[in-house]
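Every protein is a chain of amino acids, and every chain bends into a shape of its own. The protein below has been through that process, and both of its lines are reproduced in full.
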Amino acid sequence: MSNETTRARIALVTGGNRGIGLATALRLRESGLTVIAATRSGEAPEGLEAVRLDVSSPESIDAGFADVEARFGTVDVLVANAGITRDGLLMRMPDEDIDVVLQTNLAGSIRLARRALRGMLKARSGRIVFVSSVVWAAGSAGQVNYAASKAGLVGAARSLAREVGSRGITVNVVAPGFVETDMTAELGEDRRGEILKGIPLGRYAQPAEIAQVVDFLASAAYVTGAVIPVDGGLGMGH
């Protein structure tokens, strides 16, 4: 018999208060999971359970997990979604913008996974999903720091998948393209038009469409080390 016969019980979603994170939290809740949205403020909308957690701080990660474990139990599904951008041409990019993006997007996700493994290894079951981006493989001018952080998630996920697969734990990556969020809303109309020309489906994704794929990975027992593009064909499966 499989180590997991039903959906995971408790899910922790970082950046779960808006955009892709919020859509994912709501989708997982609809699927019957107990969902905790991890946010820097410790608050979450839509009646979601919440925990204060700053992914750029190792101490905050540990404290956040301890809080969740005390109130709800072991985390069965981790969705490492929280991320930031600090765009600019590399020649003019300050060290701070390099460091903070790598620390938050890449190191933060790795540390989240490490902390989640404490309970998952004991349970011999778990689902870890890293939220990357189409730029992990396609690249993006002005986003050397961001693209590096998102590419790093792929290597981290595949390495970890090999480490923990024998314990019934899967590790996968979702790579969204351009999504209708607060971040993309800041783009000018000309830039939005340029981007749309490169998307075969001719539109931006809705956050719920990314959440649908995360929901699948939260229950799939025989998918691991995968990178699933949700980008309307923009990256053509890189």
